[in-house]
Write a structure and sequence with these properties.
4 helices, mainly alpha
Length: 109
């Protein structure tokens, strides 16, 4: 029985499928298709992070990170570049460590 996926997968997934005695049908995406597929994959991985807990959550965070690395590469950046930008933003605007939840802002005008 055929299983339809129509989604971006990690590079070694076709090999793993072949090792199981099955035949993967794949194609290489254009750059525009690749960007869109990565964005779709990021949404999927973020939802999986939200749904997971414990060690499984760490696995899902790692999957999301892999997608972010690929998106950064398309933009000509590395994960280290992204971390540098994040660190600068953290220095300027703070991080999320204090668990601050902004309910509203009262204007004096």
């Amino acid at each position: 029985m055929d299983r339809i996926y129509n989604k971006l997968v990690r590079d070694k997934i076709p090999e793993i499928i072949k090792e199981k005695g099955e035949e993967p049908i794949t194609r290489e995406l254009s750059l525009d298709e690749y960007k869109l597929a990565l964005e779709t994959k990021l949404k999927e991985e973020c939802q999986e992070v939200i749904s997971a807990s414990g060690e499984e959550r760490i696995e899902e965070i790692a999957d999301a990170l892999e997608v972010l690395k690929a998106l950064a590469k398309i933009e000509g950046a590395t994960l280290e570049d992204v971390i540098t930008v994040a660190d600068k933003k953290s220095t300027k605007r703070g991080a999320f460590g204090k668990r601050i939840f902004l309910e509203k802002v009262i204007s004096s005008k």
